[in-house]
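Backbones bend. We report:
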Amino acid sequence: MGLGHYFSKGAMMGKFKHGMSNTRVFKTWLRMIDRCKNDRQGTYGKRGITVCQRWLDSFEAFYQDMGDPPSPGHSIDRYPDNDGNYEPSNCRWATKIQQARNTSRNTILTMGGKSKTLAEWSEITGIKEPTICVRLASGWSHERALSEPIQARVGTPWKDSGMSRSAWYRARGGAL
């Protein structure tokens, strides 16, 4: 069953008396149900993700629990459990950045008892994501990879001269 089934069936039965059938939040509710009921890609069904019965039975209940998205940039997100169901205790309106950080594809690192995504730790520490990845691949612990300061590169004397690397080498006759 596609979205049309829920919409037309509900309209025929007079269920949609809320006057919100053309709103973004109503369409979000329909798409949420469709994703779980008609899992074309297998990403929801394989993980057992469903919509709670209260929301499945009633847009009004969904709207009462969730309200309107705070802005056009917000969409529904299963949080704090991305593998959990669509239900009041596990849903929020989230920005694209929040959504991107709440996926099963993220790398989660723990330091000082706090778990965050690689992107979040990179922002917090100022250490670039590729640097953290190389450190982890080299066998560093999460704590060390996230806390050890980045060492200044050696062998870059042209930086202090105000010249480009090639100009600095040319000025020195091409020799080190």
Remarks:
- The radius of gyration is 25 Å.
